[in-house]
């Protein structure tokens, strides 16, 4: 990886950002949200691993941790070369319940440790107890890095105020219609790596005229332009697909660089609009 004029220029799928605890996390990973347990998730993850992805992102609520684990095992890739993330579901928040849920996820994945464990949604009143359990798991070496997902600035400020260990990652909905600049700046200032889920807004951005125009300029797809925008903004990104040609296409973003003008045009598409729930209104599972 090289940095040119303060813009991130990654060379391949194995390039990493260094989290504040020194752990290296790949800039691009493969997400399995809504990928069905069984053959679909096994074959999708194996296709991603064949292509060269080394970071796989799942969650307890996705219901496909066993398939992800099976794919990892069948790939034959040494465990130490992979970066595996899963997330604690809302109904399991709390100190003891978090520790139990972690063991369940680890067993389903068939792993001895996780690279990254995230609190899936903040909720209102349990994430501090949950975080104490995360800190315990981290200190015991069961997880190489701990973080959160869907945390707003006020959640992060509240958590950090009593935490012994600051979150290393905040995975949030992030795409050209939701640029989250204040949150991104806050995380950068605190040394928390921002990570994008739903980088393509669940496909809603693929016909956006400005993005189509920019894609034609670079002879790339709209998806590739968005993912390149993520990377040049120093945001980790985890696109998902069950189609092998899309998995390959999504990774083909290392041979071009968006100009600052085009980066600004994409930034200008912000609408503060979401494909998913607003973190302050997400109550499912709590």
Automatic annotation (TrEMBL):
Gene3D superfamilies according to UniProt: NADP-dependent oxidoreductase domain
Record flagged with keyword Cell wall biogenesis/degradation: no
Domain NADP-dependent oxidoreductase span(s) in chain numbering: 29-270
GO terms assigned for molecular function: oxidoreductase activity, acting on the CH-OH group of donors, NAD or NADP as acceptor
Positions of the catalytic residues: 62 (proton donor)
Protein family: Belongs to the aldo/keto reductase family.
Protein name: Diketogulonate reductase-like aldo/keto reductase
Source organism of this protein record: Neobacillus bataviensis
């Amino acid at each position: 990886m090289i940095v040119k004029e303060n813009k991130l220029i990654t060379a391949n799928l194995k390039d990493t950002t260094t989290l504040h605890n020194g752990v290296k996390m790949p800039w691009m990973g493969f997400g399995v949200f809504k990928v069905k347990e069984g053959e679909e998730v096994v074959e999708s993850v194996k296709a991603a691993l064949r292509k060269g992805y080394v970071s796989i992102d799942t969650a307890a609520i996705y219901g496909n941790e066993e398939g992800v684990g099976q794919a990892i095992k069948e790939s034959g890739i040494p465990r130490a070369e992979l970066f595996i993330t899963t997330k604690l579901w809302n109904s399991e928040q709390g100190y003891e319940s978090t520790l139990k849920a972690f063991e369940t996820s680890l067993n389903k994945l068939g792993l001895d440790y996780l690279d990254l464990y995230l609190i899936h949604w903040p909720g209102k009143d349990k994430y501090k107890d949950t975080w104490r359990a995360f800190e315990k798991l981290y200190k015991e070496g069961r997880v190489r890095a701990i973080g959160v997902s869907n945390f707003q600035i006020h959640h992060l400020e509240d958590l950090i105020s009593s935490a012994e260990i600051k979150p290393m990652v905040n995975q949030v909905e992030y795409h050209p219609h939701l640029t989250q600049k204040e949150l991104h700046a806050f995380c950068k200032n605190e040394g928390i790596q921002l990570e994008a889920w739903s980088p393509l807004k669940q496909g809603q951005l693929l016909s956006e005229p400005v993005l189509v125009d920019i894609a034609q300029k670079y002879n790339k797809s709209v998806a590739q332009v968005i993912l390149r925008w993520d990377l040049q903004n120093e945001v980790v990104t985890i696109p998902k697909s069950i189609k092998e040609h899309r998995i390959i296409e999504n990774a083909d973003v290392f041979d071009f660089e968006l100009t600052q003008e085009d980066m600004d045009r994409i930034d200008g598409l912000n609408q503060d609009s979401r494909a998913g729930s607003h973190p302050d209104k997400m109550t499912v599972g709590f």
